[in-house]
């Protein structure tokens, strides 16, 4: 009965500190992230309010592991400093029993962290992009009024002589992209309008001159309209060009199968091209431009397939850092015997930064390059598990 009551008491203490700390740290990260986006993009107040819900899972993604470590460091550091660990051991209870609540807490929290990470990717980041996308009209006008020049991440730039009552005076608009889509247009004046339904920025220009491609140009007197597509929403039918790190887990398996089919198709295409070149007695074509293009497509397809295979392992490894942080932090806090929360947290977090993150980044890079299997991203977690096991043996002898 006593061990059960003790386990419940410790678990409640961990949960109380965790909830309070998570709210504080998430709020700090949220304010920093929104402030950065506000400064960098020039978002208005309404856009910032729309941005907040989408930024919450992104903030939780980074806050949960650190908060889990902080909460167990606080509880076990105080217990060791107050002599409670020695008292429990003298009553015949193993000190390892004290660590069970932390292990249970971390084991239950880790899948939640994985879910937060997946939500941040599948809902949070696309939502942030969508808010910024739909605010591009206001952002452009604010920057043009202040600097008379605006360059967008969506592949276009605008230069004006002045802006009066949301009218651009002598605007020059340059749209970058494929040769067929790229153009440059100048006008005496113009306006910007956001078409939310089409996710496009509409230019209404007066007396414009358009230059397309290789010197193809024309003069359009009067009012004319040009459209700049801005759509970047995640679409199940158009995910072949989306980075694996931006795909939700529910789509990765299906996209991995599709990418495997694309890779095999590229291999077959390259083999067929090489075979026909040999049959036609034109071996020089094997190293030609067309063959190089097919080979480049094959290499890119194989690289994306490798990253698609690595991404689920990475997502789960990141989520379970909560578990392995706690496995190291809880016994280390007992051995440190200090009730100073920040000292205990620093003693636990500094070694984790120096050991875990370099190993994690090394495993991730090697796995993405195909030099390690996908589960190589767990290298840092495995090392933390080993260190935690050693610390637990020392706690047992406490």
TrEMBL record:
The chain crosses the membrane at residues 12-34, 316-335, 342-363, 375-393. Keywords: Cell membrane, Membrane, Transmembrane, Transmembrane helix. It is found in: Cell membrane. It is a multi-pass membrane protein. Pfam families: LptF_LptG. Coiled coil: none annotated. The keyword Cell membrane applies. InterPro entries: LptG/LptF_permease. This is Lipopolysaccharide export system permease protein. It comes from Neorhodopirellula lusitana.
